[in-house]
């Protein structure tokens, strides 16, 4: 946690609002704000250190509440300039916190169940939140091209944000992706480059490109801009608490891909506590994975501190990172808060997508099936307390993973007359 | 216009807020609120007559501004009970009004160009707005099943709203729809009935079912609940004006399917003027159709008062109504306001989808391609004034009409190394 740190002589003069410096999560070494992501001392991951020292709690609360209905209401807590809302970007966030009373009844939750539904973002996933931060960093560092490696949601989010902001974009994907995902990534008019190889090959190539003169002036949102990018997930924590009436939930169920989102949600909650915007009380964070890519839940259950990589094989493709960079931090947070990390089978993912849709009218992508499925499993196993206020994240949109529920279809086929209607037992 | 009408002895006691009665748009005959849609005197269409007489302008404005970030901020102007925001529904609306400066530059608009982007609604189309009204009417009249005939957006909106509200749903579609649309309509768990026949057959069957005991207790959102349902489109007008700072735009470009949306947007603007919430000044409404289904633009250009039905043949399937019920009213409004009704080819629709995506990062469904394409054509032809403030509607989501832009794809395919990257001319 780097709240209320004081500016030092190493701090940057780049205007990214309250962001004061980059600080190593392992050794604490501090460097000026810049497009770097690994510590020069110990190779640990860098994250943003803020200077929040000037804030008065009640003034800050009022400023937030008077802000726009998007993530920029939290600009005072993000690595972005104060006038960010005036710059062209997709203005994601302030998505619905759905009070899920029907789902609560089905699951036996009595303490209040909510679904934070990030399918309402501009490109229909939480990735718009993180890309919006990376875009501001790219502006600050003078980059003119936005880039990333992706297999889906991120490609669309980067393409759309770059289009609106007037950046060139060049996105790298495996060349044999499904046509639907290719169309979604290509429609925004940037360069969309298929790499002959798998996602690992794409990633390796991007790392090579960053070190080459050809990659100069390029902001890779999830590589050299990663410290900024990752902070976008804090806004999920801020919104959940504000939408609950500036109250911490007792329990949160968060999907794990790289684990970055879960760690930043924890960071956001801790900031709200330190800033006095919410009461300081315990909360538990639960991580959710698909069984076919469950390196973190496997490590958690085995009591390990390190995460052993897995080869992913699951329909929850947006969570299919076999070697999650933030895995060890996730284990720390789940253990520190008294949470748990659990996984569900692909069949349970599909069932959970259907359960959420038919109880709340929310059509989640497979990642949302993972969190709802894990919530059910944790309740059934007595790990999650049904008497406590619980928030479950849906980070994407079912329209993007239609294949996963392709078995869903017509309940009847009839001829266009009442006799046929009655014969089908529909009357 | 039925603003500030006074309650009469025929008025209903059903609590739908300021809705006082149903009134015939042709002969003015007034009947109590109920699940009826055609005038018993002249068979004209019924619409809601309101009693807004108690409202003080500034109090109303404050009440709206303090309301939730969804359509229920306008509950005082809608046929819904005052406590509607507390009932389970999808809470649609308050979607982004995107300041489209990049698109404005491409089109030569200097007076301010905005895209009202309704893809941000819960099921990603404006249909959530109208279904939310029909749901409240269904509750008021004691219906327990929500139904409709649909070929796409409406099926999903009804299924989702019914699921969340705890209604049974039974939606009728042609049996041979694309698999993607079937999945989207089926995921919410209601009955999804395929009819062996085309959309006309589906509609005819629904009319038969309404008159049969088997259809008792069923609210067909776009048939017997149509007067309530249609009012949801007024919220587009309210939001646009409030988001412009309680200001009328000079020009609006609105898609035409049945024509209902355009007529209700005009009704909403007129209400805001009469209530004093915006300045009374002229505005022009432009209607947009696809050339392959352009009965209204054909009639407009020919100077006719009646609309001759067409057999639709266009990729803009959500607008493909060959015999639009509100066609004559649309002609009236376009002529009264000094607007125009124009159409574009399918090729222009696809081009316009790409134009909007690459300038503003908004991925519109084909209906959005129609409005953006028509806007471009109207400017090129000198009909729409580029020096005036203009709002273009995007009523749906590109993810639902991927086939229309299936030609969009990779800009290059390379091997995972820098040499291949350079050879492709990407450096």
Automatic annotation (TrEMBL), chains A, B:
GO molecular function: L-serine ammonia-lyase activity; threonine deaminase activity; threonine synthase activity
EC number: 4.2.3.1
Modified residues annotated as N6-(pyridoxal phosphate)lysine in this record: 127
Keyword line: Lyase, Pyridoxal phosphate
Tryptophan synthase beta chain-like PALP domain residues: 92-396
Gene3D superfamilies: 3.40.50.1100
Pfam family, one: PALP
Organism superkingdom: Bacteria
One annotated GO biological process: L-threonine catabolic process
Family: Belongs to the threonine synthase family.
PANTHER family on file: L-THREONINE DEHYDRATASE CATABOLIC TDCB, THREONINE DEHYDRATASE, MITOCHONDRIAL-RELATED
Designated name of the protein: Threonine synthase
Organism name: Streptomyces ferrugineus
Organism taxonomic ancestry: Bacteria, Bacillati, Actinomycetota, Actinomycetes, Kitasatosporales
